Amino acid sequence: MDTSIATNNRTLPVMEYFYTIQGEGFYQGQAAYFIRLGGCDVGCHWCDVKESWDADKHPKYDVADIVSQAAQFPGRIAVITGGEPLMHNLDALTSALHEAGFRTHIETSGSSPLSGSLDWITLSPKKFKAPLEEVNRAAHELKVVIFNKSDFAWAEKHAALASPGCKLYLQPEWSKAKEMTPLIVDYIKDHPQWQLSLQVHKYINVP
Ligand SMILES: C[S@@+](CC[C@H](N)C(=O)[O-])C[C@H]1O[C@@H](n2cnc3c(N)ncnc32)[C@H](O)[C@@H]1O
Ligand SMILES: Nc1nc2[nH]cc(C(=O)O)c2c(=O)[nH]1
Ligand code: SF4
Ligand SMILES: [Mg+2]
């Protein structure tokens, strides 16, 4: 797998792009255009988009073309995801999105340095490659995937590193959602600073 990707930030490997509703977290339910970049060096065993990991398997697109596709739809939230989008320098993509009137949101594990101008940072920290401090501090929402009981302690560890006002979400790992969701509900009842994030798009079968 190529981990030294994106030397030219005017072109980026894109696995897929789609206009849908944000299925998770604070913006859940709002129209959003998703740009899924290729490349990830974190390697979560339960990742729901393993096809994204190898950047070389995905065609490179000019940021102007990525943005002109996005601008065909009326929504003005662009969610940059992956893969791990911070493996790429996002300066050119986020400025082109801003010029076209988009808010720039990112879904990240925080394992690579921040780049670009980002209006909303969703940090989902992973044990397999922990986030950098700068991303813990900058995050607007923390969204921790709960795969087993030990992940509640992982969630609290990252809540303690977050800035004041950061929204706190617990999200069941999809394959274990039946088992973990009741534990998350009980946890939130005892720790009301947390909220539940479900992957709503998977329940209603939209991308
Ligand atoms: C596929 S990741 C891509 C962005 C970035 N690499 C990250 O992990 O945040 C997008 C979001 O989906 C979550 N996710 C991935 N696989 C999941 C699963 N099996 N169940 C629940 N959430 C999952 C991630 O934690 C992250 O919040
Ligand atoms: N609808 C929808 N909402 C999402 N929120 C985060 C996603 C992601 O894969 O980053 C995602 C996704 O794949 N689809
Ligand atoms: S960091 Fe994100 S894209 Fe990478 S393996 Fe984990 S969930 Fe998948
Ligand atoms: Mg997803």
TrEMBL record:
Keywords: 4Fe-4S, Iron, Iron-sulfur, Lyase, Magnesium, Metal-binding, Queuosine biosynthesis, S-adenosyl-L-methionine. Its cofactor is [4Fe-4S] cluster; S-adenosyl-L-methionine; Mg(2+). It catalyses: 6-carboxy-5,6,7,8-tetrahydropterin + H(+) = 7-carboxy-7-carbaguanine + NH4(+). The keyword Magnesium applies. [4Fe-4S] cluster binds at C40, C44, C47. Pathway: Purine metabolism; 7-cyano-7-deazaguanine biosynthesis. Pfam families: Radical_SAM (PF04055). Catalyzes the complex heterocyclic radical-mediated conversion of 6-carboxy-5,6,7,8-tetrahydropterin (CPH4) to 7-carboxy-7-deazaguanine (CDG), a step common to the biosynthetic pathways of all 7-deazapurine-containing compounds. S-adenosyl-L-methionine binds at W46, C47, D48, G83, S124, P125, K126. Substrate binds at I21, Q22, G23, R36, T81, P207. It comes from the Bacteria. This is 7-carboxy-7-deazaguanine synthase. GO terms for biological process: tRNA queuosine(34) biosynthetic process. Binds 1 [4Fe-4S] cluster. The cluster is coordinated with 3 cysteines and an exchangeable S-adenosyl-L-methionine. Binds 1 S-adenosyl-L-methionine per subunit. Its EC number is 4.3.99.3. The gene is queE. It is an enzyme of class 4 (lyase). It comes from Chitinophaga skermanii. Residues 27-207 form the Radical SAM core domain. The keyword Iron-sulfur applies. Homodimer. Belongs to the radical SAM superfamily. 7-carboxy-7-deazaguanine synthase family. GO terms for molecular function: 4 iron, 4 sulfur cluster binding; carbon-nitrogen lyase activity; magnesium ion binding; S-adenosyl-L-methionine binding.
